Every structure is written in structure tokens, then in C-alpha cells.
Amino acid sequence: MIDLKKIRVDRLKWYEWKDIKVLRSGLDKLPSPKDIIFQNSNTIKISSETLKKDDIQEIKDLAWALRPWRKGPFDLFGTFIDSEWKSYIKYNLLEPHFDLKDKCVADIGCNNGYYLFRMLEQKPKKLVGFDPSIHYKTQFDFINHFVKSGIEFELLGIEHLPFYENKFDVIFCLGVLYHRSDPINSLKALYKGLNKGGELILDTFMIDGDGEFSLSPKDRYSKIPNIYFIPTIKALENWACRAKFKDFEILEIKTTNLDEQRKTDWIAGESLENFLDPTDKNLTIEGYPAPKRIYVKLRK
Length: 300
Known about the structure:
The protein has one domain: 3-Layer(aba) Sandwich (Rossmann fold), CATH 3.40.50.150. The strands form 4 sheets. The protein has a 7-stranded mixed beta sheet with strand order 7-6-5-8-9-15-12. It is of the alpha/beta class and 300 residues long. It has helices at residues 4-11, 18-28, 53-65, 87-94, 114-119, 134-147, 183-192, 233-242, 272-275, and strands spanning 37-39, 44-47, 74-76, 79-81, 104-108, 126-130, 152-154, 168-174, 194-205, 214-215, 230-231, 246-255, 276-277, 280-284, 292-299. Helix 2 packs parallel to helix 6. It has 9 helices and 15 strands. Helices cover 28% and strands 25% of the residues.
């Protein structure tokens, strides 16, 4: 039995990590203008008519110190945070397929909360983000300092869902499953986190093929070390069936391209163009099929 209270207390120590403590001290100094304007669109924009130039510069400096920004983009008082991913492409693709009004919603692997902030527009009853990254939690707190959204952020992972105090009507699990060494148990955890009749919106890597098999990279996939299994559609459907999900509905199949994911000044490292074979963009640098994603909706 997992004791979530103990885990939460233990993870409070993460705030004391040297690099994180410096960043979080910057959060304590942020101004709090009363005339915040929150524009919830492809670029999440936060503005104010009264903020002083020195305060705007301080916010920009902290945003820069909080790199890398993987999800976004954001516009903070004129500073455009050009994240690695144009996350609105995925969100806009999925939005026609869900209704969050008055529902309890979780985003597993929520990163800095970009999708959660976008979900506010549908007026859910409750929004909870799960991500065991104190860096992403600090980015979220930075944005939420101005938005004051009411979104809850838990420094927890997919494995904690079966023991969580509440169940959810809708769970999003976007770009997480291939990082799990036991994808079927992960799907079972997601299943247990749902209310009866609840929906799971899932996005994961896939490979083409008519069989019931998956690719298991030897060392890395697209230079990413923690990629364990990349299934065919039929294999993914079988995994979902073993986890007791029903109504396997394919929403979209899409190859990741250089418009959606690319290197910017706001990340500290490489991106998709560095992960692909320079002589054949249909292959990763390791020689595997290039990243392709499947988006599905499952029901409990």
C-alpha cells in the first residue's frame, strides 16, 4: 500500500535542492499586479497595464532562468516564451473530442501545466496535474502566480493514481506511456484512477504494422534513453483490453514534424531535427522509424 501523505512530505525536500531553491526564491519576489489579463488561446498570454518596467524585466529574467521550456508557448507581459513544442497543435487536435464542463479532470505528466491552463476555458469542476518534476512544478507556480487558476499540482506519477484520494471523470495521459517499462500496468493504474464511465485521452508513440507486436529499442530512441515499448495499433489495443478498457477509439494518427517540435532559444539542448537521421527524415538517428503518434480515447 502506497502512503501518499508520506510521499508528499518526502518530496517537500525537493524544494530545498540547491538549484531549485534559487529559482523558487525568485518566485517569492514576483510582483502581484491587480489588473492581470489572462488570455487563454494558442499562446497563453498574461498582461497588465500597471506593471513597472523593472518588474517586467525581473519576470523575463526568471523566465529565462527557468529554461528549458518544453510546453507552451506563453507570453508574459511581452516576453514570448517560445517553447520546444507548439503544444496548441496537440491541444487543438484533441479538443473536439472531449467535454470537461463540471467534471473532475487529471493530466498525468502535465509538465508546466500548459494543457491544464487551456482546459480552464471548458469550466471543469476540478483540475489536477500530476508530474514528479520539481522543475516543471516551479514553472507551473511561476505562471500560476499570475493566473491564480485554482489548479492543483501533485508531485506524483502515474503509479500513484490507484491510491489517490479522488477518482476522475476524464484523465489525459499525453506522451507518457512509452516512458513506462510496464505499459500494461500503467494502463491499469489509469483505469483505476477513473470513475465508472470515465474517459482516458491517451497519446503515445506507435509503429506501423498489421501484427500484434511492439518495438523495444536497445538503448535509445530519438536519443531518448527511457523509451521502452512502441506498439503497433493492434498491440496498443490489446494492452488497453488487458487493462479492462473498452471502446478503443482512434482520434488521430500523426507524424511529429519540425513545425510542432523544434529547437528554440528557450530550451537548453537538442530537439527533433537532431534526433532524426540527417540523410533520411523517415528514420531516427538510431535507424528506427521516425516518431509517429496515435491519439486514442478509452472508456472505463
